[in-house]
Amino acid sequence: MPDRRGATVMDDLSDEIVVDKILIRLPPKDVGRCRAVRRSWRDATSTPEFTLAHHRRQPSLPIVDGLPSRFVFLRGGSGDGAVSDQQFWPFHPNPTLSGRICLHAATDGLLVVSHGCRFHIYNPATSRRALLLQPEHTLPCHSILGLYRHGAAGEYRLLWSSTRGDEPALHVLNVGDNESKSVRVTMSSPSLEQAVLQGLPRDTHYTGAATDHPPVHHRGNLHWLRRHCGAADITDIIVFDTQAESFRLMHTPVKLAHLDKLFHMEGKLALYSIDHRLTAINVWMMQD
Q1: 221: helix, strand or coil
Q2: How does pLDDT run across 58-78, given as a tens digit for each residue?
Q3: pTM assigned to the model
Q4: DSSP secondary structure string for all residues of 228-259
């Protein structure tokens, strides 16, 4: 019922209207404040469905890996070309916090960060994080290749690579229950299988180097440029189907160079290439 001034009060609105029409349109900080008002609002905004739908309404912001223990969102200005920044801290700063914090993967507003030898999944909107267990029986050097949402299962998963020398092993880890399984690369020939395994980026929790070549999320798949040409001697994009959890290769329009990179532009998979003289940039967009 309206109050004495004729204004509608929140008690007159159903939780469905409040959550689906109001809370989902608020900035993350305001959603966090509303979570403290009512238990029903907290429960409704804690579901994976709400988190994903709310994130998709937020602007896509680039992240700068700050040193030693913070990250920065870059925000565009009000049409004058100015750029502002907003810092966020996966770990509360304190005098005992030492060592670099590395950013390894991101999707749907969730980040995977490491501090020391431990990996965490972190939600900047709620400032909450959870420890990720590493796959069992892994080899000494671990890399996180990507974070994705498995549509059929409705859960988030991590693609890991564990390496000893030139022997990589791949694993998929379910976020939340921390159960992992091995993933095999099955191609038409052993040389192509090695091309995929050797062409995937590598990092460790000490360097975070694979974040220099993060996967591009496009139509439910992860994409990387294959940078190491083996016996197959081909130039390709490595594609990981996040539903079937299998690999395939896709040809690039040009021979790859050191300064080529994949990116997402206007809903399409794109590739830019800088010529050897560093005087021109060519851009290709994948057509349907």
Answers
A1: strand
A2: 776 666 555 544 555 545 444
A3: 0.73
A4: ---TT---EEEEEETTTTEEEEEE-SS---TT
